[in-house]
Structure formats: structure tokens, C-alpha cells
Amino acid sequence: MAKIRLVVFDMAGTTVDDIIDGVPLVLRSYDEAFRRHGVEVPMDVLNDMRGRDKKEVIEELGRSKASEIYEDFLAILHEKTGRVREIAGASDVFRALRAEGVKVALGSGFPATVTQEIVDNLGWSGRDLVDYWTCSEIVGENRPSPAMIRMAMRHTGVRDPAQVVKVDDTAIGIEEGHNAKSFTIAVLTGTQRRERIDAAKPDAVLPSVRELPAFLGERKMI
């Protein structure tokens, strides 16, 4: 294996614990916004949408009411982002990787303002733990397009995708990594079913990001 120079992490479910009152922030916000406009979408359908661009999901499921639903969705997200926490050990993982000379980037399906708010609230940028973050809204393409990974590569000066690891808790995030020709690692801290994640054929599966530095070290990837 090539030595790794960049790890691109997903946020919600991978590095961000977005469970609020027993329900993931994204799913709660979808559900509340849809219901305000008389649209009912089963929670398991919404859960299968995790990892996708949020506006794209609402346009697909909300149809003629999508614009109003999306406005409410954003308002609900902003009300609650201060309550999210990092997945246990995420900051320590970022710190360990950077100590080995590995760049750390985040990619999210959240809108840009929400992504920025979460990164700021968790103190990741202020403590120099994250080299770069982006989201599908910024790059103008949605997963499984590899656009976010490629943008992170450009901003961190990494040219070879074989030197990149993509870490995600969703099937579509693993597909994104495959499309970038990166090494893909699934983590089981999200809410998607294991069989759905396995169907995306990640190169490795870990219980959480906390095991990542040891995994990479044992395989001499860092």
C-alpha cells in the first residue's frame, strides 16, 4: 500500500455525533420540515438518504413544495447544530494523523453554512485539527461524485488518489471514495444498515474512527 497523505472524513455519523433526543439531527430536521408542509416520508426512507446532498433529497421527495420545505429544513438545522458533539475520539484521531504528516479534510452533504457552523462549534478549525473542509453545495456536485475528495486533494496538495483514504458511515460515501479511486473505510457509528454498507464494498470496515490510526499503522500506510 502507498503511504497515506490525506484522509477525507464524512461528518454526520462518521466524525459528528448528531443524535439529538434519540434521533439523528438530519432525520429529525427532514421529518419536521416535511410534516410542516403535509408531506410524510417514512423514517427508513430518510435514513437510506443519509450521505446525500440535503437539498437534492428534499427536491426529490418534496417536489412542488421543495423550496418551502428546504427553507424550513435549514432553519431547523441551525436551531439544533449547537447540540451536536463529535464522535468519541475524533479530535484525537485528527491529531494523531497530523502528527504523522497526514492531512485531514472533511466532506459533507450539509449546506455550507451548516457545515461551517458545526466545524466552528466543535472547535476543529480553531485548534488546527482540520486542514480543509468542503461540502456538496460548495463543489456543485453530489455524492457519489468524487468532487469533494478531488477538491480536498487540490487544497492539500495531494495528487495521487492512491494516497487518499475516504472514511464514511454510508454506502453512498463509500461509492464516492471508489469513484475517486481512493482506499475506502466504512465505520459503523452511523444509522445505515450493515448490509447496505457492505453492498458498497468498502476496502475495510471499522467500529469507529477511533480505530483508524492503529489500522493504518499496522498496515504501514502511515
Describe the fold and architecture.
The chain has 222 residues and is of the alpha/beta class. The protein has two domains: 6-17 and 86-218, HAD superfamily/HAD-like (Rossmann fold, 3-Layer(aba) Sandwich), CATH 3.40.50; 19-83, Putative phosphatase, domain 2 (DNA polymerase, domain 1). The chain has eleven helices and ten strands. The chain has helices spanning 25-36, 43-48, 54-62, 66-80, 90-99, 112-121, 136-139, 147-156, 171-179, 194-199, 212-218, and strands spanning 6-9, 16-17, 19-20, 23-24, 85-86, 103-108, 132-135, 164-168, 183-187, 204-206. The strands form three sheets. The protein has a six-stranded parallel β-sheet, with helices on both faces. It has a two-stranded antiparallel sheet with strand order 2-5. A two-stranded antiparallel ribbon has the order 3-4. Strand 9 (183-187), helix 10 and strand 10 form a beta-alpha-beta unit. Helix 1 crosses helix 4 (66-80) and helix 3 crosses helix 4. The protein is globular. The model has no long low-confidence stretch (mean pLDDT 95).
